[in-house]
């Protein structure tokens, strides 16, 4: 990530457009509210420590002498950082061999049945040291930050043994220590698949997870959330409910993989257990939408996985039109979405899911923050984290998704620290 320049009192002036500017953080946005992005032209932002202090029009800009650092935006646009609420960023090796299998026509399920997929990553991870995992994950995390991501969730789930899962979660803890300028949430995903030594004994694996893995994770305080892959060929609704109930005893809320491969009941069990989010949702019906209505669980879709696997895209348009919130996340992982580019995710939201640029933007910022369980990121508002990125001057908000590979970002600011791109 390079050397961070600490700015105790920072002024950003001559901002062509301040995007996502609120008087106070709005919390999660739902339905029609997702179509609105408040913007302020010809603006300034003041930062005190790691928080936004104030903003306003350049006609009322504060005296520069009161700040320790001044950045001239040169009429570029200032955005709140992306919040990526679903990643598997800690892994060993890569899976481009399976990429060839996909090109040859094998499905995700067929690759998994041949010993590939999650179990392939599990084998590689259990051969890697904690230091090796930390260094490779650090490279990916720096790349995400340079692309404008300021908040991110990272899951375990490739260990599939007590020692392997703890190793992953300890790496995530070290990433938090190494990158304090990022808001990182940790999720225990021991129920990602059944470990090889438990092949054919899924119930025994769930018993082990509940009786050994969960208490060990809780004893070290390694996870904010617990996740379960509740889908066809993976974990059942009953097993998911058991894991979520046990996790709640340790103070961990759920973040569920649901309805990627089939209409699995994962949404319903997630809502019943007050999960923070239910993620994937490539296959969703009116029953799931009705279940989510009125709940505090945020539907989260992962269009990068749909793109890479060639599977259906989630019905994001239908979810928003039903008055629900929607978050979009990268699903950054080596097998089904090997990218942490949230600009690409936002673009896919528009192109493949028919979201407007405003809806797509809110889905990867303020609603992404809500799906992280964070209320003070993803917007530019007094009291919120000063996690923002600056671009060159743009013709419109839609240009961010339209020109999704163009190198627009000129500077990233994470919790008040300026990262030069």
Give short descriptive properties of this protein.
single chain, about 425 residues, alpha/beta, Urease, subunit C, domain 1, TIM Barrel, 2 domains, 8-stranded mixed β-sheet, 8-stranded parallel β-sheet, 15 helices, 16 strands, disordered N terminus
Word description of this protein:
The protein has helices at residues 96-103, 108-113, 118-127, 130-146, 162-178, 202-219, 237-249, 266-272, 286-292, 303-309, 316-321, 342-351, 357-364, 366-372, 399-402; strands spanning 9-19, 39-48, 51-57, 69-72, 77-80, 82-84, 149-155, 183-191, 225-230, 253-258, 277-280, 298-301, 327-328, 388-391, 409-414, 417-420. The termini are close together. It has 2 domains: 9-81 and 379-420, Urease, subunit C, domain 1, CATH 2.30.40; 83-372, Metal-dependent hydrolases (TIM Barrel), CATH 3.20.20.140. The radius of gyration is 21 Å and the shape is globular. It is an alpha/beta fold. The strands form 2 sheets. Strands 1, 2, 3, 4, 5, 14, 15 and 16 form an 8-stranded mixed sheet that branches. Strands 6-7-8-9-10-11-12-13 form an 8-stranded parallel sheet, sandwiched between helices. α5 packs parallel to α6, α12 (342-351) runs antiparallel to α13 and α13 (357-364) packs parallel to α14 (366-372).
């Amino acid at each position: 990530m390079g050397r961070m320049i600490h700015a105790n009192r920072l002024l950003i002036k001559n901002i062509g457009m301040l995007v996502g500017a609120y008087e106070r953080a709005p919390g999660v946005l739902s339905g029609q509210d997702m179509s609105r992005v408040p913007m302020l032209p010809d603006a300034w932002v003041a930062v005190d420590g790691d928080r936004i202090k104030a903003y306003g029009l350049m006609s009322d800009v504060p005296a520069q002498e009161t700040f320790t650092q001044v950045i001239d935006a040169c009429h570029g646009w200032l955005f709140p950082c992306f919040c990526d609420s679903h990643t598997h960023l800690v892994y060993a090796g890569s899976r481009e061999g399976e990429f060839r299998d996909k090109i040859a026509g094998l499905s995700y399920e067929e690759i998994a049945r041949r010993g590939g997929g999650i179990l392939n990553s599990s084998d590689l991870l259990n051969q890697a040291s904690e230091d090796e995992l930390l260094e490779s994950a650090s490279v990916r995390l720096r790349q995400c930050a340079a692309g404008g991501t300021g908040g991110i969730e990272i899951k375990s789930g490739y260990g599939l043994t007590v020692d392997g899962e703890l190793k992953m979660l300890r790496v995530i803890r070290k990433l938090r220590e190494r990158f304090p300028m990022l808001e990182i949430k940790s999720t225990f995903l021991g129920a990602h698949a059944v470990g090889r030594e438990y092949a054919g004994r899924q119930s025994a694996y769930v018993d082990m997870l509940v009786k050994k893995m969960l208490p060990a994770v809780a004893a070290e305080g390694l996870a904010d959330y617990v996740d379960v892959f509740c889908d066809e060929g993976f974990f059942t609704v009953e097993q998911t409910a058991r894991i979520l109930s046990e996790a709640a005893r340790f103070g961990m809320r759920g973040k569920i993989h649901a309805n990627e491969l089939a209409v699995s009941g994962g949404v319903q069990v997630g809502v019943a257990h007050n999960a923070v989010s239910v993620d994937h949702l490539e296959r969703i019906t009116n029953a799931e939408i009705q279940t989510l209505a009125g709940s505090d669980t945020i539907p989260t879709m992962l269009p990068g996985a749909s793109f890479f696997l060639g599977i259906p895209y989630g019905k994001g348009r239908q979810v928003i039109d039903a008055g629900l919130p929607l978050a979009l996340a990268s699903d950054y992982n080596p097998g089904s979405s090997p990218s942490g580019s949230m600009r690409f995710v936002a673009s896919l939201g528009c192109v493949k899911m028919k979201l407007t640029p405003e809806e797509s933007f809110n889905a990867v910022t303020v609603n992404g923050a809500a799906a992280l369980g964070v209320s003070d990121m993803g917007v530019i508002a007094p009291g919120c984290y000063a996690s923002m990125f600056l671009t060159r001057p743009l013709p419109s908000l839609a240009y961010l998704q339209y020109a999704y590979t163009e190198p627009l970002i000129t500077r990233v600011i994470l919790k008040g620290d300026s990262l030069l791109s």
